[in-house]
Specification:
The chain has 14 helices and 12 strands. It has helices at residues 17-28, 39-58, 72-84, 101-104, 107-112, 130-136, 159-169, 190-193, 242-253, 259-277, 307-316, 336-340, 345-349, 362-380; strands at residues 5-6, 65-69, 92-96, 116-120, 141-147, 174-178, 197-201, 212-216, 282-283, 297-301, 319-320, 351-355. Helix 10 (259-277) runs parallel beside helix 14 (362-380). The structure holds pyridoxal-5'-phosphate.
């Protein structure tokens, strides 16, 4: 019996029961090096290949390629730097303002390869500003990097529109999508969409930490960014993490079919409850009836109560949430994502992120709403304006 309510699923998720079973199987039976030539190794290799097919299928990429990586960050790095290494080292790379550091921290390395980096602006709802992007696109653009779902605002990015604009205005530009917060929670038809690569991460979908993947089109060029034994078709050296890979396979196979619908209902319940109880509450991200609204992330500012104060108060009740994104929460600075959406410093400083999973129950949400209401009434009286 769990004694807490976990609403920080965008930071990481609890391994699901099928994942735990797959891990036990992998540790007891499929721990062989898949590159060796004896029978148990070849069996392990077959299991790894089955997971590759499962993940490709789930992303609408049956006939495309997939390389296993250690995490979403490595998949993003490989997609961006590995691809740019194969091009002519000139031109512009457009990166969305709301990108996670897995992408945005590549900027200097991209510049060292000879490219110039420009930002794709975000609008107030956290979606890429398409009017601005249209002005930026021309034949000098080598690559566009954009996420599927923003990890703080929950904004689903307009990928179809971006692909259409690229086809019209910058046909030689490739598109990489960071799908770490989207995969399985928001539909993706990788091949049909016309993007070149797509990154995902196991620990955001109830698999283990330490496993990620990069999906890419067969005709898309990527060079390795590490050196070693040449595993994964030379793209990612290092003995395969069979335990992590098999955990990813189980997580994808057993992800609840109606998980996204369930989370969307819980998100609606949470926002309706909070906004009724606290009329001052501000939604940071797309409106709930917008097609850009993802099912699992709700970002709310409860001014004047600072997010850290509310976070600790909720922790006292056994409710775990996050202030901005988990990566930024130790750094004590205003989230660049929320600033890029034009939030005031106070609104960003009071932003709380609730992120749900298919296991989040109606009772979890009811209890959370009630505790937020009680703490808010008490804390706002003690907050200086
Ligand atoms: N991209 C996004 C949008 C994320 O939210 C995260 C992690 O929070 C990452 C990339 C990095 O993934 P990983 O933790 O697997 O490296």
């Amino acid at each position: 019996m769990q004694t807490f309510i976990y609403l920080d699923n965008s930071a990481t998720t609890q391994p699901s029961e099928p994942v735990i079973q797959a891990v036990e199987h992998a540790m007891r039976e499929s721990w062989f090096n898949p590159s060796a030539l004896y029978k148990p190794s070849m069996e392990t290799q077959k299991e790894v290949e089955a997971v590759r097919r499962t993940v490709l299928h789930a992303a609408g990429a049956d006939n495309d390629s997939l390389v296993f990586t250690s995490c979403g960050t490595e998949a993003d790095n490989l997609a961006v730097l590995g691809h740019l290494k194969t091009r002519r080292s000139s031109g512009r790379v457009l990166i969305f303002a709301g990108e996670h550091p897995a992408v945005s921290a590549c900027t200097q390395a991209i510049e060292r390869l000879g490219y110039t980096v420009e930002t794709i602006a975000a609008g107030p709802d956290g979606c890429a500003d398409l009017e601005q992007l249209e002005k930026q696109l021309d034949s000098t653009v080598a690559m566009i990097v954009i996420m599927q779902v923003n990890n703080e605002s929950g904004a689903i990015q307009p990928l179809q529109e971006i692909c259409a604009m690229r086809d019209r205005l910058a046909p030689s530009a490739t598109i990489h999508v960071d799908g770490v917060q989207g995969f399985l929670r928001v539909p993706i038809q990788f091949h049909r969409l016309g993007i070149q690569s797509y990154a995902l991460s196991g620990h955001k979908i109830h698999a283990l930490k330490g496993i990620g993947a990069l999906i890419f089109r067969k005709d898309h060029k990527i060079a390795s960014i590490g050196y070693g034994g040449g595993q994964e078709n030379g793209l990612r050296s290092g003995t395969e993490n069979t335990v992590g890979i098999l955990s990813l396979g189980a997580a994808v196979e057993h992800y609840p079919a109606h998980g996204a619908e369930w989370m969307m209902e819980r998100k609606r319940q949470l926002w309706t409850g909070i906004s009724n109880a606290i009329p001052e509450a501000k939604l940071n991200g797309p409106q709930l009836d917008s097609p850009a609204c993802c099912p699992h992330i709700l970002n709310v500012s409860l001014m004047p109560v600072r997010s850290q104060t509310m976070l600790f108060a909720l922790e006292g009740d056994g409710i775990f949430v996050s202030a901005g994104s988990a990566c930024a929460s130790h750094k004590q600075k205003i989230s660049p994502v929320l600033s890029s959406m034009g939030l005031s410093t106070q609104q960003a400083d009071c932003a709380l992120r609730f992120s749900l999973s298919p296991q989040t129950s109606e009772e979890d949400i009811d209890f959370t709403i009630e505790r937020v209401r009680v703490h808010y009434q008490m804390l706002k009286a003690y907050t200086r304006r």
